[in-house]
Amino acid sequence: MTLSICLSIIVAAAAPEAASRESAIRMLGSVSRPEDAEAARRALDAVTRGGADGLLPVLQGFSNATALGTNWLRNAFEILAAGEQRAGRKLPENELTAFILETDNPPAARRLAWEWLVRQHPDLKTSIIPQLLHDRHPDFRRDAVALLLEQAAAQSGPAAVALYRRALSGAVHPDQVKTIAEALAAAGEPVRIAEHFGFLTQWKIVGPFDNRDMKGFAVPYGPEAADGSAEPFDADARWEGLIGPVRWQDISTDDDYGLVDIAGQIENYKGSLMYAVTHFGCDKARSAELRLGTPNAWKLWVNGRLIFEREEYHRGTRMDQYRIPVRFRQGRNEILLKVCQNEQEQDWAQDYQFQLRVCDESGAAIHSVQETP
Amino acid sequence: MSGVQSMNRKRAAVAVAGVLIFLRTGSAGDWTQFRGPGTNSVAAGQSLPVELSRGAIVWEADLPGRGLSGPIVQGDSVIVTASSGYDDDRLHILCFRVGDGTKAWERQFQATGRTVTHAKMCVATPTPATDGERIFAFYSSNDLICTDLQGRLQWYRGLGQEYPNASNSLGMSSSPVVIDGTVVVQVESDAEAFAMGVDAVTGRTRWKIDRPRRATWTSPAILPAADRRSAQVLLQSSAGLAAVDPHTGQQQWTFGPGASTIPSVTVSGDRIVVPSNGLTVLQPSADGTSVTVLQKVRGARPSTPSPVVLGDVMLTVNGAGVLSANSLTTGKRLWQLRLRGRFSSTPVAAGGHLFCFSEQGMATVVRVTPDQGEIVSELDLGETILSSPAAAGQALYVRSDARLWKFAESR
Description:
The complex is a heterodimer.
Chain A (H helix, E strand, L loop, with lengths): L2 H27 L7 H13 L5 H6 L6 H20 L6 H9 L5 H14 L3 H5 L9 H16 L3 H14 L3 H13 L6 H5 L4 E9 L27 E3 L4 E3 L1 E4 L7 E2 H4 L6 E11 L3 E8 L3 E6 L2 E6 L11 E7 L2 E10 L12 E7 L14
Antiparallel strand pairs in A: 1-4, 1-6, 2-3, 5-12, 6-11, 7-10, 7-12, 8-9, 8-11
Chain B lengths: L2 H23 L31 E6 L9 E3 L2 E8 L5 E8 L5 E8 L18 E2 L3 E5 L4 E6 L4 E6 H4 L14 E3 L2 E7 L4 E7 L5 E6 L10 E3 L8 E6 L2 E5 L6 E5 L10 E3 L2 E4 L4 E6 L6 E7 L10 E3 L2 E5 L4 E6 L5 E6 L9 E3 L2 E5 L4 E7 L4 E8 L9 E3 L2 E5 L3 E6 L3
Antiparallel strand pairs in B: 1-32, 2-3, 3-4, 4-5, 6-7, 7-8, 8-9, 10-11, 11-12, 12-13, 14-15, 15-16, 16-17, 18-19, 19-20, 20-21, 22-23, 23-24, 24-25, 26-27, 27-28, 28-29, 30-31, 31-32
């Protein structure tokens, strides 16, 4: 029997198996309901019966996978990879490296591959990570920034400043940005932190409206429509508020973290609520994340559509407390926020504030092409 | 001492002695969930090392992330959860071998719900549970993950995705319980609140009930079946206590005068001890349809640790680290003992001793009798401990943010 005939037989035998594996991987990636678990268990068995040759297909399966599906695929990868380790075999370094460096591949899959690969070959960190400073996965960015910060700390003068500047270009986590900003400020190059994070700092605000006994959360005052949507912004609108007639007023913030302090800049009207509106320009339709921090109850509309609402008061606040995926249209997008204060009297329940930014999935700022209140 | 007090003390002594005899002759079981199989922190049949010292450490293992979740023990496996990453969104399940502490396997998942918590908390705050064949790992993000004992995923519920408003910006901490093939989770926040019974095998919802829309950090407890009463799951919130049928979620009775939102209800025999106006002792009716208040103990105010009952002695730790003992029968204060440190961890009771771990990492063993609490030994582990320990196979397991320890008597 010739070699080519042997290979044909092997390929013919392997093809159905591979097709079955591909099907099982697709099934795992599609899991979205509790009812899918039984089929997913069977698919997991099918995928993990093979060896290392299943690793790359599993990673590729992360494309378009659901959040639950991603975790099923992650489990399959870990079972396969751990099996290889137990057997004393190395993971396919070249293939995994190529998969990681191809930035069109799903970020979560690339990161998973990296975390297993770097255990096997720690030296890869210095060759691969610097290439991922502007990656879609925030953890790659974090690692790349950390390497640059190490280098910058060992330098001085313009060389250090250049490294800090480069680190800032990829930094998405507040602790790293703070370190960089302090170093650059000391070198006479202050960083505009709010701009770096993409905080929206120019707003129009109207209120207070009545939220006594927390009843106002459900009441569609003037900026809202009765059907739960938002009315288009009307700069000349007038309404009757909690303590008299109200109209849109300008409000802005120069806080590094975009904090609009209603209590401090206007007044802490107990049992009240305010609406704040701003506009965000896009040169094309695109996906983005709105990241909100507020200790107050809130509702959020984009282009008139209610995106999310949450009735929780004073359970803490921080930057990026809420991550809300949105789809912006080309041109001007209207963002309306309803912020509610209750009547709690404790010291820790007096904040009346919000901070909102626009970014991508990695946390990197997306800037308005024409931000106008 | 009055005659009544004297008689009560004698009764208490008899009750404790009875429990001690039982504890020393019972079989050593697994530690299957938060506060053990009985959800009462009592390690029946365990003979744990009361002289804690470095010499009592059988092994220690490094952990990859933080956790307020306690370890559980199933057969030869110690299961621990952890969370890590800048956003605390990486969820870990780890399995260590009981014998030597080597890691049998680890699985990681990406949180699908919110991971924001108070700095003291973390996403791996609820303690996992097991039914002996599966592991049920629950997190503040409301990811409910079921694997088999080898770490193979069996089902995955992203309750944070299914119910995106059922979260708390300070973090969620309620631990699941498993009873008769149902995993019961309590997911209660100001914005949305529910309890759910999930089929342990399939992951499908058996029942879901609305709960008071108020933040709570308590965990369910199990009231065992007795005579004409079927087993019930006790759900506690600031509204009070509710007993539900674990198979249907149907409410059996309620206790309404409010309850704490952090320390959880515990059960001892046919007594229910609920942190409510101090402590309130309840007795369920024989048919399990109502409950009677037996005692109100206003002076006993548990902070984060849940109460523990050892015989007739109710034990609570307050915010100042004072261990208080009150009679379960009379409610009377028996004694108090100041421990070192502040406590988040609920102690474990075994062999007439209470095993306490402070937030500062001080392990304290207290011998408990109706007459006094006596510190038997102390060991400074030097690491932050916010989790509750596990007791199984004559050994004690406790974890910090960085380490898991096994303690046992040297053989």
